[in-house]
Amino acid sequence: MPTTEHVMIEDRRERYINPYTDFGFKKLFGTAMNKQLLISFLNALLEGKEMPITDIHYLNTEHLGEYAGNRNSIFDVYCQTEDGSHFIVEMQKAEQFYFKDRTVYYAASVIREQAPKGAWDYRLQDVYTVSLLNFTFPKGEFPDDSYRHEVVLMDKEFKQVFYDKLTFIYLEMPKFNKTEDELDGLFEKWMFVLKNLYRLLERPAALQEKVFTMLFDAAEIARFTPEERWAYEESVKNFRDNKNTVDTSYMKGKTEEKLTTAQRMKAKGYPVEDIAEITGLTSEQIEKL
Q1: What are the sequence ranges of the domains in the chain?
Q2: Which of 36, 29, 37 is nearest to 75 (CA)?
Q3: Among 34, 59, 39, 60, which residue's Cα sits nearest to residue 49?
Q4: For 114-139, how does the pLDDT look when each residue is reduced to its tens digit (9 = 90+)?
């Protein structure tokens, strides 16, 4: 979490946009005027890559299928670098069934669009899917102490990369809990600011790089035009509605799980007092089962 002096009081109006909203994410990463922000983030994410990214151009985020009725692929941000690599960058706000399948489907549509008409030798450009997740994967899928996961095609027996042109990078944002004083390197600074931006009242002292000057200028709500402010408020409303729906579904699921457990315990003859203590349900709820 950010240090106390940077955290906004919950009942005060936010100074900076929330990157978890559609408007906020695309404002920072999906506009040509702010493309240096995306370039900086991707270079920090891929630190150690042989050739750093120096330029990008944005591509159409909606790709139609090859025949009528086929599913559309809609990306948050879709761009191509100067060396031909394709990047899908998305903010996934809520957990969903078959999430990994969806990221593979999106990447596959980018692969298929590389095929030219006529003769072709099947040489492909790199495709990266970068997913910032406002949730965590189910326990056991990845180590609990790791928030960055880079997935490629590998040989299972020899643990060697089989194909290095298709890469999926998942960032579990809730797992990143470093404070401002603990940040090490540009990538962790990006993780910190993306997770905490809407909570901040001022620019943290640790984020003095020129790229963060650009970011805080672009993110300051007071600089928005009336049209941008209206669009942002609508995006915030949609984000909160979606969050409330997810939270309600989660709580409903937990309650149903408790009721099922209580019902089984009651059928086995457990005392009501013991069932209540274990499940957290009231005696009245248990008696009705």
Answers
A1: 4-223, 225-289
A2: 29
A3: 39
A4: 988 888 899 999 999 999 999 999 88
